[in-house]
Amino acid sequence: MRGFLIDLDGTLYHGSKRIEGADRLLAALRANRLPFRFVTNNSSVSPEEVAARLNGMGIEAQPDEVCTSSLAAAQYIAQRKPGASVYVVGEAGLKQAVAEAGLRLTEEEQPDFVVQGIDRELSYSRVAAAVRFIRAGAVSVMTNPDLLLPGESGLQPGAGSIGAMIEAASGQVPVVIGKPSSILMDYALQQLGMEPGGIWVIGDNMATDIAAGIAAGCGTALVLTGLTTRDNYEHYAKLAGCKPDLICGSLDELQSYILSRIGL
């Protein structure tokens, strides 16, 4: 175990509440100089906002330790066409990532790429423009395929639901950046400056976290702190079509396992 890619929602916190042991796990990783990155499919927030939220819960975090699907999407586009024109269907975090990658935000002219994430102020006209641009030749990129996301009143449509509408109308399957795609994980590995061998993905979701870790060639640790529980594990394992290398009932149990593996 040489480093870690750590999921956030359902793994380190629920909503605004820190999950028991999250602060101790991160403190132990820092104390033992084990590198890590926080990896999230959330495309709406900046690394600064993510770090501020974690620090507010008592989990020490720095912006440069955060890898979002927006950052990975912007890099994916910039590597394929530096300075490309991009039409964004999404929120501030995605627009910031696109601009900081040296890409050119456009509204009216035919873009090289259409990149889409969660957009809670989505309009029909914006979807129509995205579809028109894609049908005219723009490459379609989707930050993450999550169909639902938690909200104050329960589950709400996620970026994947918006993407499904655009895909149906445009006839083009988008490039998916976030988990379970390996693109986001490869981006996080690049930020760590490490190869996947010896790197472990920690998460609570079989279909996203664990599947993405396997796709990237990493070890996988499922924590039963969020979506997956002992009672529903077999159900989600069957749906995801994969199994983790390690299952821990709590973050404290995971911390103990990690420390034992490094000889402490």
UniProtKB/TrEMBL annotation:
Belongs to the HAD-like hydrolase superfamily. NagD family. The keyword Hydrolase applies. Divalent metal ions. Mg(2+) is the most effective. SUPFAM superfamilies: HAD-like. Mg(2+) binds at residues 7, 9, 204. This is Acid sugar phosphatase. The keyword Metal-binding applies. Its cofactor is Mg(2+). It comes from Paenibacillus protaetiae. Catalyzes the dephosphorylation of 2-6 carbon acid sugars in vitro. Substrate binds at residue 179. The active site is at 7 (nucleophile), 9 (proton donor). It is an enzyme of class 3 (hydrolase).
